[in-house]
Amino acid sequence: MNINIIAIGKLKESYLREAAYEYSKRLSGFCKLNIIEIPESRLSENPGEKEIQNALTNEARLIEEQINKKSALNIALCIEGRQLSSEELSQKISGAGINGKSTINFIIGSSFGISPDVKLKADFKLSMSKMTFPHQLARVLLLEQIYRAFQISSGGKYHK
Questions:
Q1: pLDDT tens figures, 76-120
Q2: Within 13 Å and on the Cβ side, how many CA atoms surround 112?
């Protein structure tokens, strides 16, 4: 199974990079993990709606270059998505392979979110919580949950 984390921007804080590295290392026993960082659009100090939409459109073009594969399940992380338990996420990941999907793309947008066009192309919209998290922290939380999902499906004790 290939897992791609397609994220807008880089992890800026060293503690977040260290946490992401730790979960990446743990995941190596379960899947081939790729973290694809797409440059965040540069915006003015107080961007207007048009500037934000232009940035999302530019980011969408770069995201779409990564997700246009028939063998992939595309999951967009967005507030309006469906919340899953860890067990349900484990089932979704396991089910992807059973349904002939060899790759799962998890898409994390910028602080302004993800373009509506990308959301429309996603096979599933996932919400991490009703709470709002910085998109950089969302990457670490997602990596932890993917690791937990693989542990659940393999009967590991990490989940307990």
A1: 999 999 999 999 999 999 999 889 899 999 999 998 999 999 999
A2: 21
Contact assessment for residue 149 and residue 93, using Cβ atoms and an 8 Å cutoff: yes
Contact 30, 154 (CB under 8 A): yes
Domain boundaries defined on the chain: 2-153
The set of residues, in sequence order, having a beta carbon less than 8 Å from that of 32 and lying 6+ positions away, is 1, 2, 3
Closest CA to 124 of 140, 102, 105, 101: 105
Task: Give exposure, 90-113, as e/b (b: 16+ Cβ within 10 Å).
Answer: bbbbbebeeeebebbbbbbbbebb
Q: Where are the beta strands (DSSP E) in 26-153?
A: 32-38, 72-82, 103-108, 124-126
pTM of the model: 0.94
The CATH superfamily of 2-153 is SPOUT methyltransferase, trefoil knot domain (3.40.1280.10)
